[in-house]
Design a protein that fits this description.
Elements: H1 2-40
């Protein structure tokens, strides 16, 4: 039971990490696009 709990927690942490990375990349790209527009103008 305890082992299962630990496995579940580690799995959720991994998924959260992936989600965080995904969001970070999206934000980064979005800001890059904005800055590019600004420089073009």
């Amino acid at each position: 039971m305890n082992y299962y709990k630990i496995e579940k927690v580690s799995y959720t942490q991994q998924s959260f990490k992936k989600l965080d990375e995904y969001l970070r990349v999206r934000l980064f790209r979005y800001y890059n696009r904005k800055s590019q527009r600004r420089t073009r103008l």
